[in-house]
Amino acid sequence: MPESDKTTRRDLLTGAIAAATAATALDAEAVPTQPADNPLFQPESYWSERMKAPDDGKKLGWFVDTRRCFGCHACEVSCKAENDVPLGHFIRQTFTKDVGEYPKVARVFMPMACQHCEDAPCLKACPCGALHKGIGGSVLVDYETCCGHGSCVDVCPYGAIYMDPVAKQAVKCHNCYHRLEHDMEPACVPTCPSEALYFGDLNDDESPISMALANAKKEFGEPSQLRPEKGTKPRMWFAGDGAVELEDRVPREGESYSPAAYNIHQWKEAADAKPKDKP
């Protein structure tokens, strides 16, 4: 097959993300919606009110500049310390991948956490009504109500929820709402030494996240989102190649962030790309 006729997985993903992003920018109705017949979803009458964000005038979201992230994992450490996350479990995780061919290789990093979807499937599947929208549209868990059913894990397209082994309840990023109540950013944001994480009110044109998104559009074009075809309308955007290169590393429905992401065997990809006849 001629080289010009070859289509790589990256080409396909890049095209899909670009198309979905363009559709979002041109026509919000063009974004696909989730299938209503998911057997794990509760009746709409049960979750429709909980899906509505409070009328506080805020629209909180995330922007991740993967061009700046160098994989220090400080965001994970601060998140674990802030939220007392047990060993072997993660509220947020940084994924890594070696790309390119020898001798031109690079390591790409992408910090990940709950996308705080506008059309959150975890909220639709929760049988006890614990998942709901809080400040600025943040997707939260009410631990007075959570029964540990786990259906939220089964429907999350980003693997962003885990079941606490002791409390037997669902745990996920909650935008550090206890800090937001005191006008503080989530713990991971001020900890990031490369300023790759931005969080704030998307309704405020002067907020750090709004200005960072505007600058990224000028430099890089429209920021991408992860798995927009799921129709969840996530509130996390990415600049750089992270969302394309690392999409296959991010957990899916029924999965959670795992220590396996740090398996040393994943570090040898660049070495495998080295021609066999080279020393």
Quick description:
This protein has 279 residues and is α+β, with helices and mostly antiparallel strands. The chain has one domain: Alpha-Beta Plaits (2-Layer Sandwich). It has 10 helices and 9 strands.
* Proportion in helices: 25-40%
SS field, number of helical segments:
10
Question: What structural class should be given to the helix and strand makeup?
Answer: alpha+beta
Order of helices and strands: HHEHEEHEEHEEHHEHEHH
Radius of gyration from CA coordinates: 19 Å
Share of residues in strands = 15-25%
The CATH topology is given as Alpha-Beta Plaits
Number of domains: 1
Low-confidence stretches: 1-30, 273-279
How many strands appear in the DSSP assignment?
9
What is the rounded distance between the termini?
A: 30 Å
* CATH architectural type: 2-Layer Sandwich
Shape: globular
What is the level 1 CATH name? Alpha Beta
What does the model show?
This protein is of the alpha+beta class. The chain has a single domain, classed as 2-Layer Sandwich (Alpha-Beta Plaits). The chain is 27% helix and 15% strand. It has ten helices and nine strands. It has helices at residues 9-26, 44-51, 74-83, 121-125, 151-155, 177-180, 188-191, 208-220, 242-245, 269-273, and strands at 60-65, 93-101, 104-112, 131-133, 139-141, 162-163, 170-171, 197-201, 236-239. The strands form four sheets. A three-stranded mixed beta sheet has the order 8-1-9. A hairpin with a 2-residue loop joins strand 2 and strand 3. The two termini are 30 Å apart. 35% of the residues are buried.
